[in-house]
Amino acid sequence: MIPPERYASLGELLQDALVQFKTETAVVEYARKKKARELSYRDLAFVAARLARRFEAAGVGAGDRVAIILQNQPDYLVTLCALFLRGAIAVPLDYKLTGPELETLLGHAKPKVLVTEHASWRDLQRVQRGAVAVPLTLVLHLPPKAELPAHAERYEEALGPDDAPAPRLVPRRRSDPATIVYSSGTSGAPKGCVLTHDNYLEQYRTLTKVHPLAVGDRYFSILPTNHAIDFMCGFLGALACGATVVHQRSLRPEFIRHVMQKGGITIMTVVPLILEAFERTLRERLEERGPTAEHAVEALARLNGALTRDVPRRWLSKRLLKPLHDQLGPDLRLLICGGAFVDRDRAAFFYDLGIPVVIGYGLTEACTVLTVNDLKPFRPDSVGRVLEGVELEVRGAGPDGVGEVWVRSRTVFAGYLDDPEQTAEVLQDGWLRTGDLGRLDPSGHLHLLGRSKNMIVTAGGKNIYPEDVEGAFEGLVCEELAVAAKGFVWPAAARLGAEALLLVVRPEAGADPQALREEIQARSRRLPEHKRIAELLLTEVEFPRTASMKVKRGPLAAALREAHAAREASPLEAPANGAGMAATAP
Q1: Is the pTM of this model over 0.85?
Q2: Cis peptide before 135 (omega within 30 of 0)
Q3: pLDDT-based confidence at residue 576 (cuts at 50, 70, 90)
Q4: Nearest-CA neighbor of 537 among 554, 519, 508, 513?
Q5: Which tens digits make up the pLDDT trace of 519-539?
Q6: Measured between alpha carbons, how far is 443 from 460 in angstroms, rounded to an integer?
Q7: Cα dihedral value 131, 135, 140, 142, nearest 10
Q8: Does residue 115 contact residue 155 with C-beta atoms inside 8 Å?
Q9: To 5 degrees, how large is the angle CA 268–CA 252–CA 275?
Q10: Sequence-distant (≥ 6) Cβ neighbours of residue 495 within 8 angstroms
Q11: How far is CA 155 from CA 117, 342, 457, 568, in A?
Q12: Strands (DSSP E) along 41-132, which ranges?
């Protein structure tokens, strides 16, 4: 890996990386089960230089903004390298957003250039509120006969001739903005997090000190690159360490599984939902082999867990449990889970199989990661210790030690774009107010319990964190579930300080509603009384989620109100012991 200390900008670091690792493979793209494209570091440098020349011709220089709306693909990395060579600021946007949402963010960011692909371009063109005022748009994968307005060009044609001179590197300082990243959700005023070159270089230094990448590693980039975690691991960290980034055009499970098994994947970042899908697949394979094989694997997993409790021993785990390693990916050595609320039993399941799950905690406003588990020893009950250079305090803690998490670090962002009021709310005297609730144990591990704004206060004065209650329903046979205060979903029923817990469940197709209700009731009875589910809502509404697959609770509540405005759920019988649930309706 290239030490970042001597560099002032991402452009400088990337320029050296593209030369130092020139003979290594930089990026591989799969289309279903076939390799569609492969670029060496030399190839990547060559194409990035050609695009940088087009940026230069368009007047893009120090401090100008280049927006990117692309799915994960090699040209995403090409675009990032090119714009950083020009000293520009990257504005990576979520390609899953609607045309109106993208237009709002583009209007707020005011980029000089937009790099996108046909699908997102088409959505933007359908917006009725007016054309997006971007001086130059480069469109990738455009159909041959498609026409473009005067301010747009085909991306492939914009690369220019092969023999043109390489553009010069535009220098930047560490304190200069490197990216503007829009945090999850688009309701209300847009919040563009301004992250500096120093934020990224410091994050790269501290994160790779705990979990380094190296030449020969193959990082499977399946989270959107606009997301902070994949931007760091699937772009900057990978390229600065000489690793290979692997993309898959289709995210269907069978194609992801193919790349994991055949693509030599050594490391990948996932969210809890993907981790759950991996576990379900492995357990199904075990069940297919019959009870004897299932019990044998369970015994070997317990043995492996006992022998590796202090530190992972991959060579041992592969010998004991090779068939399961081959099923998930024979070269896979590490899963990084980018979500605060990872089920501890699920993390332990993978660790006992010899596939460590690194649990960390961070947020966009702090670049990527603040705490991470170093696996020395394995701790599935926390989000790890703070990284080097991070100061963390739990403020306003109650008798249980739970309070709001505040942090100070060189990775903390410069503020929200053109929004001093919101910036002042979260940045105070150099400290970032995260809005997350947690506690520190004596060993320095952070335990998260939820978002302060999601907290539910019961009639008995108890504070309930929805994520904590949701953990009691892990493994429930359903598509997805979420816990909220009834009054949050149905404001007319709100009673401040006396909220009833509502469980929203989207059942699987063909599921038996009564059996599902009975299972929920049984699990609810095992919870402390103040955490028991009071009401249940079965819905067909698909949960809106962020790029990192966290539930957008506000949009979910709005969608439920709209979908169920004229409905009532079937009533549930309440057991005599008071542990039952009533049905809910608007």
Answers
A1: no
A2: no
A3: very low
A4: 513
A5: 999 999 988 777 889 889 999
A6: 32
A7: 50
A8: yes
A9: 40
A10: 459, 487
A11: 9, 40, 53, 51
A12: 65-69, 89-92, 113-117
